[in-house]
Design goal:
- With about 550 residues, this protein is of the alpha/beta class.
- Helix content is about 25%, strand content about 20%.
- The chain has helices at about 10-20, 40-45, 50, 100-110, 120-130, 155-165, 205-210, 260-270, 275-280, 320-335, 420-435, 460-470, 520-539, and strands at about 1-10, 30-35, 65-70, 75-80, 130, 145, 180-185, 215-220, 225-230, 235-240, 245-255, 275, 290, 300-310, 315, 345-350, 360-365, 380-390, 400, 410-415, 450, 470, 500-505.
- The strands form 6 sheets. Strands 7, 14, 15, 16, 17, 18, 21 and 22 form an 8-stranded antiparallel β-sheet that branches. Strands 1, 2, 8, 9, 10, 11 and 23 form a 7-stranded mixed β-sheet that branches. Strands 3-4 form a two-stranded antiparallel ribbon.
- Strand 1 (about 1-10), helix 1 and strand 2 (about 30-35) form a beta-alpha-beta unit.
- The chain is globular and about 65 Å long.
């Protein structure tokens, strides 16, 4: 098979690219996705995330990776869920629509990524967006991606916001203006004003599913890309497995790698592109020595505080919780509302642990259930939780090959807390978060504090808690970073340095992690990339 463009990975970036590039009727596009169609009820019903996220007892739409043991986390292996379906991680995430701070993108430009400053990327955020609140200087209202107010927020979430205000944190009505400091509710990637009202709007549901009938677009699911093939320094095709069959597809113009922060460096390394020491030891022939491949891994390390409550108007486990859940399922099927439409992380905050900082350095996610080990440890009854993560970690990790077998998981080493500044911020952020949870507005909900947290904790106690209970909140980036320095993998047009016909387009190209959730920025990256690719084709 031959196409103009071959896209590897049907996640947030790949779905966006496939839809945008196939708008040109004269360009043929093939999309390869290792997972399924990403359109089942567990994806469409937002609360279905509790079945997909844990990755156990079976993996549902989820690669369910693990890290190598982390010395900074007392030798524990971290858990790294990633979406395995059309829509990628946008099919299994909490749907939060967050762009990050304007300074994040201006920082990219300052590092040599011309055209990626806030004013340059804002039009692409707006282009993607169909915001329920309408269009204005900051938001779009005619893009494919539905961005909604939450369908039916729980009263306890409003109490959390009030608690933040009681501690003099500002109320923030919109977390997406480029200045996010404050406490408020999240908007979500969820359908509004249509027959799909209340359903998850994954990147595939937004971009890809409406255009699957285009004659110039071919989408192959349950096929696993094994390597990129080259003619000299030019990428010409992609080899993949479909069941037990080995096949390949040719790209006349470009191969576009959209495998995410773990999958993209792994595929490059399997193809002989990366650090020689990482590749040759697995018996793989070198194509191009590019030392930055797999380096610069950044992720949001996260600590969860939790409480039991006697309030039953949230998500609970047990007989009463099951009866309530059945009632909510019926309501959601009829109206798109009810707890089935919840992102669970309904409220949140962006705060400064030091008033002298130029922007918030911690993010909070307030969740209407007890969260323990990524929902892999369940607690009977009702409760609530609050996540705390450091937004711009100093620690840097790596992704590497563990085997020449393309179906083996990549080695993932975030090196959490390898920089002591991250621990300091996590401890201060945890103290600030607990203060909010102990504020008067939350008093009627508090019943029992969980995970060993108590009033008289020392910094040593907090350090022990952070090291024993922290893990990812699912925002890995940076492993094929954009720039022009020696460790950059792609240039500002996302072309791989030193090679032809090959780009990487996903969260792996972020030179530094944004101050928030990464799904909206990843879609923005793909929107901008599509315009650059079209411009090159027209030149």
């Amino acid at each position: 098979m031959e196409f103009d463009y071959v896209i590897v990975g049907g996640g947030s970036a790949g779905s966006t690219l496939a839809a945008r590039l196939s708008e040109d009727k004269d360009a043929s596009v093939c999309l390869l996705e290792a997972g399924g169609d990403g359109n089942g009820i567990l994806v469409r019903a937002p609360a279905g995330v509790v079945a997909m996220l844990p990755g156990q007892p079976v993996k549902i739409n989820n690669w369910a990776f693990q890290t190598v043991p982390q010395p900074g986390l007392k030798g524990r292996k971290g858990y790294q869920p990633r979406g395995k379906a059309l829509g990628g991680s946008s099919a299994i995430n909490a749907m939060l629509y967050v762009r990050g701070q304007s300074q994040d993108y201006d920082g990219w430009a300052d590092k040599g990524c011309d055209g990626w400053d806030w004013n340059s990327v804002l039009p692409y955020f707006k282009k993607s967006e169909n915001n329920e609140r309408g269009g204005d200087d900051m938001h779009g209202n005619d893009g494919p991606l539905h961005v909604s107010n939450q369908r039916e927020m729980r009263p306890i979430t409003q109490a959390f916001i009030q608690a933040g205000e009681e501690l003099q944190h500002r109320r923030r009505e919109d977390f997406n203006t480029g200045d996010n400091e404050g406490v408020g509710t999240y908007q979500v990637t969820q359908f509004h004003g249509s027959e799909k009202n209340g359903e998850r709007c994954s990147a595939a549901a937004a971009y890809l599913f409406p255009v699957m009938g285009r004659p110039n677009l071919t989408v192959l699911t349950k096929v696993h890309a094994t390597r990129i093939l080259f003619d000299g320094k030019r990428a010409t095709s992609v080899a993949y497995r479909a069941g037990k069959a080995e096949k390949s597809v040719t790209a006349r113009r470009e191969v576009l790698v959209c495998g995410g922060a773990f999958g993209s460096p792994q595929l490059l390394q399997l193809s002989g592109v990366g650090r020689a020491d990482d590749i040759r030891r697995h018996g793989i022939d070198m194509i191009h020595d590019l030392p930055g491949v797999g380096q610069n891994l950044q992720d949001h390390l996260d600590l969860v505080l939790g409480y039991k409550t006697k309030d039953t108007d949230n998500f609970g486990l047990g007989l009463t919780g099951t009866v309530n859940l059945l009632r909510h399922i019926v309501k959601w099927a009829r109206s798109g509302k009810s707890m089935i439409a919840t992102p669970f992380a309904e409220g949140g905050a962006f705060l400064k642990t030091d008033a002298g900082l130029d922007r918030p350095d911690i993010q909070l996610h307030f969740v209407i259930s007890v969260v323990d080990d990524h929902a892999r440890k369940l607690h009977l009854g009702y409760g609530y939780s609050c996540h705390i993560c450091k937004l711009r970690p100093e620690s840097r990790g790596e992704v590497f090959l563990q085997s020449a077998d393309p179906t083996a998981p990549p080695g993932i080493d975030p090196k959490y807390l390898s920089d002591p500044r991250d621990l300091e911020t996590m401890i201060e952020g945890a103290k600030m978060t607990r203060a909010i949870l102990q504020a008067p507005a939350m008093a009627k909900y508090r019943h029992k504090e969980l995970f060993g947290v108590h009033d008289n904790m020392t910094d040593d106690d907090w350090e022990a808690l952070v090291r024993s209970r922290s893990d990812t909140i699912y925002h890995p980036v940076g492993t094929c970073k954009m720039g022009n320095d020696d460790m950059a993998v792609v240039d500002p047009t996302l072309k791989v340095h030193g090679l032809e016909g090959l780009r990487v387009i996903d969260a792996s190209v972020m030179p530094t992690l944004v101050s928030g959730n990464t799904n909206a920025p990843t879609i923005m990256i793909a929107e901008k990339a599509a315009d650059m690719i079209k411009a090159d084709a027209a030149a």
